[in-house]
Design a protein that fits this description.
By secondary structure, the chain is α/β, with parallel strands linked by helices. Helix content is 36%, strand content 26%. The protein has six helices and nine strands, in the order ββββαβααβαββαβα. The chain has a nine-stranded mixed sheet, sandwiched between helices. Helix 1 crosses helix 6 and helix 3 crosses helix 4.
């Protein structure tokens, strides 16, 4: 798990070795932070996603560090745009999320920070699989419009308190979240954002997501 650091302003560019792949991520640590939120995403919603960056900014305002990482390499992302296969490769995404989590545990700047996951779309499923694999490191999970059903048998092994946020108009995903919730043994809550669709593009929808995520992470990682 070798890594390299580079700095751009207050954002630190980190490269994490995950098997044969080198993953790039943006790490920001506010003064006094006691926890870091690692973002997990599906295809097309990487570390430069405006939605992820908006949520990350709100989390940092609450004193939480954020680590936005691309779980696919640029070459894999280009392939996935054609085949849509890798975004559903939950074991691969979870394995890389675990590698990033272990990097956080080993680096001097982050090893004392408690870890939370913020997963979106298929990244929500990957976050739960990784949380089940790293129960002593992961203290909370938030899923935005996620696919927790894709975590399969790992759902019952998750110990981290989990918040599932789904748009009220995202009916298929809402049903999948309810079914996954019934299979979980950890503390789990479902929050529905009225009028929101899958991408939470409606006015005020992402603000609601940010508030819910911020409250959940502060409660379980900071308080």
């Amino acid at each position: 798990m070798d890594s390299k650091h580079g700095t751009a302003g207050d954002t630190e560019l980190v490269r994490v070795q995950a098997g044969p792949a080198i993953l790039e991520g943006d790490l920001e640590i506010p003064d006094g932070a006691v926890a870091v939120v690692l973002f997990a995403h599906g295809s097309g919603s990487g570390r430069r996603s405006p939605r992820n960056r908006f949520v990350a900014q709100e989390l940092r305002a609450a004193g939480l560090a954020t680590f936005l990482i691309d779980l696919l390499t640029p070459e894999e992302e280009a392939l996935d745009l054609q085949t849509a296969h890798l975004r559903f490769d939950i074991p691969l995404l979870a394995e890389r999320l675990v590698a990033a989590t272990r990097w956080l545990a080993s680096d001097p700047s982050t090893r004392r920070l408690r870890v939370g996951y913020f997963g979106a779309s298929t990244g929500g499923g990957a976050a739960l699989v990784a949380a089940a694999a790293e129960p002593d490191r992961v203290g909370a999970v938030v899923s935005r419009g996620g696919r927790p059903d894709l975590a399969g048998e790992a759902l019952a092994r998750v110990r981290a308190p989990t918040l599932l946020i789904v748009g009220g108009e995202d009916l298929v995903v809402l049903d999948l979240n309810r079914e996954a919730m019934a299979r979980m043994r950890a503390e789990v809550r479902l929050e529905i954002v009225p009028g929101a669709t899958h991408l939470f593009e409606e006015s005020g929808a992402l603000d609601a997501v940010s508030h819910l995520a911020r409250t959940w992470f502060v409660r379980h990682l900071v308080a």
